Amino acid sequence: xxxxxxxxxxxxxxxxxxxxxxxxxxxxxxxxxxxxxxxxxxxxxxxxxxxxxxxxxxxxxxxxxxxxxxxxxxxxxxxxxxxxxxxxxxxxxxxxxxxxxxxxxxxxxxxxxxxxxxxxxxxxxxxxxxxxxxxxxxxxxxxxxx
Length: 146
Ligand code: DQA
What we know:
Elements: E1 2-7, H1 19-22, H2 27-37, E2 42-47, H3 51-59, E3 68-72, H4 81-89, E4 94-98, E5 120-123, H5 128-145
Parallel strand pairs: 1-2, 1-3, 3-4, 4-5
């Protein structure tokens, strides 16, 4: 199974960015953990602080051998109709994830404009949100293949 793990703005700063909210693991450490935990999956990692680059990465799954996407869109979650349209345009399942529980935070974070076009939203498990999403996606995909 080929899965794109995509991260949006400021997630390159994990480890030092508000560790009380986002934990102390770096993005690289989280990615390395995923590689160790899911040796059966082929994981491709991408991070950008730019909306267009994230859209390009999502579009790059079209017609390629990608089975699904796990995306932490960062603050784009709350207002990017362009990323929403892109997710709606690709046919493979996309899971939206957040380290923090966005529903327990500021009012502006409680809305995701992306959730209605994603297969699921996982929010609040800290760095483990990534592993939960990959695990659920692999489970879902394995059921599809039966
Ligand atoms: C986040 C939550 C967003 O509201 C915030 O803008 C982020 C990180 C999370 O993982 O908890 O950058 O997506």
